[in-house]
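Let us practice reading a record.
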Amino acid sequence: MNISDGLDGVSRLFIDTAPVIYFVERNPHFVNLVDPIFERLEIDITPVISPITLAECLIHPIRLGLIDLEQAFVDVMQQEEVIFVDVNSYVAREAARIRVHYNLQLPDALQVTAALITECQAFLTNDDALKRVRELRVVASSLNNLALLYNSQGNYAKAEPLYVRSLAIWEKVLNSEHPDVATSLNNLAGLYESLGNYAKAEPLYLRSLAIREKVLGSEHPDVATSLNNLAGLYDSQGNYAKAEPLYLRSLAIKEKVLGSEHPSVATSLNNLTKLYSKQGNYAKAESLYLRALAIDEKALGSEHPDMATSLNNLALLYEEQGNYAKAEPLLVRSLAIYEKVLGSEHPSVASSLNNLAGLYEEQGNYAKAEPLLVRSLAIFEKVLGKEHPLMAASLNNLAGLYWSKGDINSTNDFLTRGLAVEEKNLQLIYSVGSEQRKQNYAQTFTGSTDFAVSLALQQSAKNPTLAKLALTTLLRRKGRVLNAMTDTVQILRTQLEDKPETKKLFDDWLNVQQRLANLVYRGAGEQKFEIYRQQIKELEAEKEKLSS
């Protein structure tokens, strides 16, 4: 991402405010991008600025009383080789025309006009909106593009503020239903999904999809992308019923518009087949995986990240079927591609390490599995933070490995940490999620709950700590469900206040439901089982009658 390369053939360059600030204040996110450009200003490019650039740069140091910083900006912009453009009546009139023609803010229009009248061949800025100006080569140290770079590297902490600022710029410069706004919404939503913040991601994905459908039409490739991303979000939360139709619609659009062998079709196939694998529909999944793999290899080459994804998914399918001989070389090859293309500390590398370790663990090869799981956990913790959902899975996987090795203390330590992370994420979802989302998300944690209970049952006499951990986990998760049910009942009662007949019917149904629950929980006791069973049948019939 070398912006200096975009200045080949440029002899006169207009410099907007932000690049000067990045250079003088040594902004850690951008200094490596702008330094090569400012070095060229002393060699083969003449810099051009306006009073707006100078004034905007000086606001911050003057406000804070930073005299040295103020002078540093003045020194940079008053060097002998710098052309300083005065804003006169002619510039003002031309700026008005530019503003009307390109729908720019007035300061931006003045900057563009200053660049045009001094015959600059290029305009250096961080504002993508100025790329609409056709008379100039706008070289943008783009916030959104830089955010995409950080995101692809797994550097989410750096990416988020850039995405947020990029979205704010687009919404200010364009209208709220512009396709570029939809793109920014989609990118920010993807970041939040990567961070496990599903509550923040969903409304952004939905808004992005709505804009694209309205502006671009229901069969545009960008609409397919939005559908695919929203489906992936629901898939991550275990809501397969919502995810599948979105995946299918996305796939259908891509096949129709892009053709059956486009790489984007392979992406949709991969996502859909992962869902089928989770549902146990292996035959359906395998044929789609093989098709995705063939498309990726033909269109992208053998070392593309999408190729690694296809290999990984096919390997997991074979592993689920117990075909370890087929799975291992695919997982090894997938990991090698990820490491080569994305770097050794990317989340995709961590996931790939985790998957390969799982294969070795299933075969009892703990010596091979352990270092892979440890490395995977270290990457997740460094890149995603200690409370990401993938951290919980990684911790729980290590707990399972140590259990298989007979290391009870390590098992307890890692399982305790994993369950704590899950509890944190459950708390987040249950505080803002819908009833269905809560149920689906809680369902994704049944494996760890069952594992904790199984360990406790096997070790209760020898290790009371594990028994306490299992009991605490069960009580916490039961409490989450009961709280959610209580909230739902209260909401329904409030909504039925102006419908007394319906409210009475609901209260009667709730009363029967509670009596039935108490009866089942208490058991037959000393009464005859036939009488106990008849009581249950009568309450179930009454509940059914009230429900109809």
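A brief commentary: The beta strands are 12-15, 46-49, 83-84, 122-125, 137-140.
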